[in-house]
Design brief:
This protein is α/β, with parallel strands linked by helices. The protein is 44% helix and 16% strand. It has 13 helices and 12 strands. The mean pLDDT is 97. Bound molecules: nicotinamide-adenine-dinucleotide and 2'deoxy-thymidine-5'-diphospho-alpha-D-glucose (DAU).
Amino acid sequence: MTVLVTGGAGFIGSNFILDWLETVGEPVVNLDALTYAGNLQNLASLQSDARHVFVQGDIGDRGLVDRLLAEHRPRAVLHFAAESHVDRSIHGPGEFMRTNVMGSFHLLEAVRSHWAALAPDERSAFRFHHVSTDEVYGSLQPGAPAFAETHPYEPNSPYSASKAASDHLVRAWHHTYGLPVVTTNCSNNYGPYHFPEKLIPLIIVNALAGKALPVYGDGQQVRDWLYVRDHASAIRAVLAGGRVGETYNIGGWNEMANIDIVHTVCALLDELRPDPAGPYRRLVTHVTDRPGHDRRYAIDARKIERELGWRPAETFDSGIRKTVQWYLDHPDWVANVQSGGYRDWLSANYSAR
Ligand code: NAD
Ligand code: DAU
């Protein structure tokens, strides 16, 4: 038995593979194009682990995906690969359409043709698990009920529109062709191996470097934060017991305003790595807001709890402490990802704000 993971060298995909091999132990074929966001260092601990087979390639490469499916005959495909950063989608939406929409389409077509040729018992046991986001639901007013699975799709950014498109493709491949799919829509993840273009790792690495901590607009935008290993355990639960054709929301029951996230990270750094120059929150700098910035996301995760008994194991306090400590303990990882390309991105996104 084997599973095929796409995007397994990224933040969530690599955490998922590490968790999967620690818990389930079933071999994984990891197909990843190694874009700027893919990093094999995340999986360095698996270097001599024969259960992890890494293949560098594009989900849109039909010949390659056909070959991998034929050779490894996975019982499931877990589709993480995507362009994932909202600000990058605003600067350059094309890559998001290419990977998230067309890449997902080519992958679905390859999987459909593989699945259609399986024996009847293998066909019914097979799963295509699509990893998606709460951002497809749009933005909530303060006090409005959290997103349930039945909430209308109202994506507002090129990123969320591309993810919404991929969700629709997955749904259609189930309804039209009978492909056994499940989709999960998760809230904001944080934890080890998070690329420092995203809020929490950016704040940690900038603070440690004595640089400004950029807060978009008034910092009162609300996100629902989930420790990444809890996302991994939720995906395991849905893959094992989720009903075919269903979607499951995954969240941390932890809504927080961005400014409070930034202040929490600063307070932890003050405790764990005090700066002689003074408290880290002195570095907070309000900058021009993100265009079309969604004001609030919140996930109603009752369905996955009711049907599959899943709840997050970490509180925000325990998860963020582990995360900050992880970044303090891994300066080499941080230095390695802050390559020339990373510096170009910082200047493209922040110099005119
Ligand atoms: P990431 O940007 O850290 O990693 C994406 C990975 O996909 C990288 O390893 C990259 O090399 C790979 N990739 C990109 N294009 C590819 C292609 N064409 N072919 C093969 N591989 C390709 O993203 P992440 O934060 O780990 O997110 C993973 C998935 O989870 C995405 O689908 C994202 O939409 C979804 N998601 C993310 C969050 C979050 O908070 N980060 C929350 C909910 C859902
Ligand atoms: O909600 C799930 C989504 O969470 C995932 O689908 C995306 O892949 C993931 O990137 C994340 O999207 P966000 O836009 O919410 O994450 P980001 O870390 O970019 O920003 C979090 C919040 O912090 C958001 O309101 C924007 C704000 N922000 C971000 C950056 C990078 C700042 O205030 N300053 C910054 O410098």
